[in-house]
Amino acid sequence: MNKISLVILCSFVFISFNLKGQGAISEMGAIRASYSNVPDRKIDGLTTEVGYDQWEAQAPFFYKKLDSWMFAAGLRYQTTGFDFSDKALLDEDRLHSIDLAFFISKKQSDTLDWIFLFNPNLAGDLKDTDTDAMNYMTILGAKWKASETFEWIFGAVYTTGLGDDLFVPAVGFSWEPSEKSKLLFAGPIIRYKYEISEPLSFILAGQFTGNRWNTQSTSYTGSKQERNFRLRSYRISAGIQWNLTENHGVFLNGGIDLARKVEIELLNGTELLDRDIKSTPSFEIGYSYQF
Hints:
- The chain is mainly beta.
- It has helices at 3-21, 24-28, and strands spanning 31-42, 49-66, 69-84, 94-107, 112-124, 134-145, 150-159, 166-178, 181-186, 189-195, 200-217, 225-243, 248-266, 271-277, 280-289.
- Residues 1-27 have low confidence and may be disordered.
């Protein structure tokens, strides 16, 4: 397991906590659809180029509140169209990812909340899916309210699928400097939101993006061969969120993807590719419906 994977894992923890800590019910209960595009760029040291566009949809399908307990569940689907110019390394045009998130929280007191998240994931070409495309993540943590505007976040995550099974502790905070602004700082994740007016907000963000897909093809050797494909980067972005009505909203983000890396390996761990990719601009547009 390398350092960048540890950072990505911590990111998952804080994203989940941030949902709970800053109006989580509306965030987790939102239906969202988005489209993003990352232009082709060369892999360092090669003539091979890689780029992609991605459609994403997420929606809740269960919510229940019982006294101090809250139970929720949601589904996210991503379909990613790849432009990978060397078909001998990756003969895939479109890959998919399905996430189920099961969330439980317990309000212990006015200042302390306990949080649990279980997130199984299926990522691959979905042509001949087996257990190698399945992974899961489990999060256990707490949110402690230090004041009306400041919260500490503590937790740990256990995950599979990014190399060895891994357990990682983490800590972070969320802060509201003013009535119109919110700041989340959690290791690699930085998110600042400023309310320009009641319907319009400006957002600055930094976070890791990417995934690991399990692929299967007969084009490499003539018989079926499985390859794990990883693509990841650190994205710095700026955007606007416009609430058209109380329920409907749209958002637009533009940024740059830095520290990009691509990896392809066989199931036995043999590395076929492990290189950096040149930085590139990124773009995202989407719609959300708040219940």
